[in-house]
Amino acid sequence: MSVLLYSHLLLASDTKVLENDGLENCDAKSIEWAKHILSGRPSLVFQEAVLPLKDTLNLKSALDNANIVDVLRNSILEKLCDNSEHLLLLAISLLQTFLQSNYTGPLPPRSSLYILLNGNTEQAEQINRLLIASLSSGGQQAYDLIDDPLSLVLSLLIFEKITNQTVLSENATDSNMAVPDIATLTSSGFSSVAHWWLGRALLVHLSLLPEPSGIIPSVLSVIFSSIDLAHAIANDLPEHSSQDVTLRIYTIFYLENVKCSLAINTEQLCLASLTKVKKLRKFEFVLTGARAKRTKFQRESHSGLIILAKSSDELFRENQSNIENVSPEEFHLESEILLEKPFFESIADEPLDEQVVKKQRLDVDAGIEEEKLLPLALCQENIPKELMLLDPNAQPKLADYDDIQLLLRFYVIRQSSPAKDPLVEEELKALISRVIYQEGVKNWTIYSRALWERSILETSKAKTVERGILQMQSLVEELGLRIESRLLPEGNINSHLRLSYIHQIPLLPRWELDAALAEKYMSLGVLRSAIEIYERLRMSCEIALCYAAVGDEKKAEEVLVKRIEENPNDARALSILGDIRQDPGLWEKSWKIGKYVNAKNSLARYFYNPPASSGLSRNYDATLEHLNDSLRQYPLSFDTWYFYGCVGLECDKMALAAEAFSRCVSLDPTHALSWSNLSAAYVQLGKLKEAFSCLRKAVSSDAQKNWRIWENYMLVALKLNEWNDVLLACKKLVDIRRDKSGDGSIDVQIVEKLVEVLISSDYPTGDNQQLTHYQKSCTEFICVTLPSVITSDARCWRLVAKVELWRKRPWAALDCHEKAYRAISHNPDLEIDENVWSETVDACEDLIAAYESLGEIEGKFGPGSLVCKDWKYKSRATIKALMSKGKNRWDDSVGWERLLEMRNQ
């Protein structure tokens, strides 16, 4: 029965559910604590749990012992109850308290440390510093001004005790955390719930660090990639529990899997989970084009993008608590020009031949590709009927989980797309607009996040930057956290609603919101305001990076030196100072102090491309050694693996390169260059079949315009005698390069091989004989595509002539021979270069031979017609014309003698 209770905690259900869901067998304390957590008062649980122990607890020894983690284990955890279910509730309440203090607001009435010290705040500041230091990981220190760090540290330690996992190491700079084997540890629903909450707590821990590094991302990847968590919980639910609970368990698992991938920079793996949760929720949405008016004075509508979306009627659940929900204030543009939001015309009224997608030369009959981040309807006929009936200017409210799906897709697209790409920004605006502009009451957490992301987009546009900045300032203040000066009056706050979806949406702590505001000031050139915010947040590294970005490296060094003097163990500050000074000693020190991976990456780049002032030459061994150290510490870094593989290729260590690029494609299966480089390593290792398989993956991903990958594909296919693939690659290369290179895009030697294979068998004749796929494709390529590309290559025309002759079309073959001769005879170097003169004489001889052999064959129009009736006259005319060009210049050459001989014959 307890699993059902913990399921409701995972789902952040309403407290009323606990009274009506058959939890009578759960003890009263568990029910009471669960209600405290779900009602947004989690700090009460810690207060009740610690109250009986207050007189026996003493943290004074923590001041004499730098390792406060051991002190907490010995002084608190051992004195807490041994009831694992109560311990789990306590750990959950502490985690929620920390989130409320630093992410959602409002601040709890009392911090955990205040409760633990019984109001004695003399030692609080020093203990807080030790607690924050204990949260360091991978050489990166947690943010200095975290509120109530004791809540998170205690939460992690309790999860450590329940799951038997090492969560906080005795040495904060060299974690000995082991990667759990989820399949063997989640046999029971309770164990699965504990590991799930452990994953949530580690995601919170990771969000306190500037960058993902260390072992935490690997542990998170294992926890949230195992569907066994959801299976075990669903199997342990009592029979009377509703199907809705099971469905929601699987829904939030897939959503949190995506959130985890975004947090650890493996966003390439998100699509599978997003596709599964979309099908699970029966959620329909599509990106399409529609005409819209954007300004108050616009008379004609212009094409734009819109998301049409509708939640499944049977799965739509309107949370009753939303009735009392208070949404964050949304600022209006108040513009004399712009409309508040685009006004769309009815989707179905747009004529098919005027649709924006018609101009893109795309396959409008392809339908909707469901397994894409944004399913795209290229024309109105592809939009599902239910979505076509929606009013584009007043779309219905979506279920909260479906709003979150759109937000997560927004983050994946933004994180995996080029910055400031106009088309990508339009797609992102369409996604955010669908979340913001919908009917009905909105959840505070989801709505405020959508407003925040809209503001980020708007601050890049001159006409909307004012609203964007003001909206960002408002959202920072509405957290109800410590703000020195408020621009706006404080509104009503419902803390339990703010916590309801915090574990499904990417985490943004309050200082990151402030820092993002400072970053926007930087992008607008308001350096002073940006630095003021960073100084208030005590973000010394960001201040230094600000100064470095505007070229004031001396000031950046001063800030970093001061930071290092105050905190000698700040490995990140040491590494950034090393980047500015290009000093390997600082990087080595950063690595020694905190195993900071960026320090090793900088060392690797330094030895790969040493500055001229160093007097060093490129050192592959040192580069690989430093990259290897970096990857041992943080094995999920795609960029580091890619660099590692490239260095391996360059210094001819193919086994190493193959391993590196294998890791790259496991992290991002759609990265074409990684597949191509992996194939290059396999070719050198003699593994042609594996190389060919990799190249197939490369050309099927995002390499449609990369001619180098297609060329490698063609050459490996040639070695394996895969002629269909050779032909495909050759056609693609011509298509990619024809506009720039003309007939230089044709690989004549490869085409010769293709023609040789084609004409090796007789041309099929008769009613029952048909061309094979290769014969049909190759004939079309040689006889249709190539003639439209060839400009001056006589050799190519002769190949076309061969195929035309094979097709029993001698008239077309003779025409190709004539074009081959014209191509070379029009060479402007004919009168100055004897080699060109000799080649032209050869071409003339070939043409005369073609006239002689083909001229009297039955022609195009059947019996009675000839290929070239006057072939003798044309032969004499051709020779005469060439002799007139070479007279007085080449009349003593060997070629001239050959022409005389041809004329006499």
Automatic annotation (TrEMBL):
<keyword id="KW-0802">TPR repeat</keyword>
<dbReference type="InterPro" id="IPR044244">
    <property type="entry name" value="TTC27/Emw1"/>
</dbReference>
<keyword id="KW-0677">Repeat</keyword>
<dbReference type="InterPro" id="IPR019734">
    <property type="entry name" value="TPR_rpt"/>
</dbReference>
<dbReference type="InterPro" id="IPR011990">
    <property type="entry name" value="TPR-like_helical_dom_sf"/>
</dbReference>
<protein>
    <recommendedName>
        <fullName>Cdc23 domain-containing protein</fullName>
    </recommendedName>
</protein>
<feature type="repeat" description="TPR">
    <location>
        <begin position="638"/>
        <end position="671"/>
    </location>
</feature>
<feature type="repeat" description="TPR">
    <location>
        <begin position="672"/>
        <end position="705"/>
    </location>
</feature>
<dbReference type="Pfam" id="PF13181">
    <property type="entry name" value="TPR_8"/>
</dbReference>
